[in-house]
Amino acid sequence: MGEIIKLDNICQYNEMVGQETLHPLVSVIDLSKSSRMMKHVRMSYGFYAVFLKEVKCGDLRYGRNYYDYQEGTLVFLAPGQVIGIDDNGEYFQPKGRALLFHPDLIRGTSLGHNMKDYSFFSYEVNEALHLSEQERGVIIDCLNNISEELNRGIDKHSKMLIVSNIELLLNYSIRFYDRQFITRENVNKDILSKFENVVNGYFQTDKPQTIGLPSVRYCADQLHLSANYLGDLIKKETGKSAQEHIQLRLIDIAKEKILGTNKTVSEIAYELGFKYPQHFTRVFKKNVGHTPNEYRGIN
């Protein structure tokens, strides 16, 4: 595992690629115009980053399939995430564009308040957004608007206009991800089927007793996906959250145990992964409308 370089501020990144710093908290960079050749390296940023990768996506693979859009990809990184490739000693000319913005830029703004809604910042790189040519044009327009504001010089309107354009870019990204979830329907259904198998398999082992209730993160790890991507995909496909799916399966298994065995409610609760039988009773009643004992009595 190679060294991880930490970049705490945007000025450090600008210096690394030979870019003038026009604003200490935000930067738009055309990497193809970088005055410095780069080496492969693994980096951790102290700021948000959006990379428009100017590569043919058909050269990359998603599981067993090639990416289905060829015009470019968007990769989103939140502060603290690590991206890159271990140094192999070779230099290269970077390509694509980058939008970097520090959390301090958006504090106290509507974007800062709503950043949690842009869950794709926690996706893995292999869950990138693959753009059509038209979508790519929309993203570039947003980047150009931010760049124009930076080159205009900072005044009392700058922050509002820059943040508004970043928010616009991210809102378009939500729309484009919705399109991607739809156009990858077959891949998504395969993931949904595998997710259900993971949940079912979990309850067929002793994991509930040793680990506890299954989490979305556990299921995502088994499928080699990020928890946010899996959650968003399942929500788009079914209208229910991944956590709701897990809970519905848990309730189905609980019903089978309540009616098909003579085990006590406490025994069933512990078998399912609950630490406290009272918690199991509350969850069961919320979903079924009856306590476990009431359900056993009327069936």
UniProtKB/TrEMBL annotation:
Keywords: DNA-binding, Transcription, Transcription regulation. InterPro entries: Homeodomain-like_sf, HTH_AraC, Tscrpt_reg_AraC-type_HTH. Residues 197-298 form the HTH araC/xylS-type domain. One of its GO terms (molecular function) is DNA-binding transcription factor activity. The keyword DNA-binding applies. It holds the Pfam family HTH_18. This is HTH araC/xylS-type domain-containing protein.
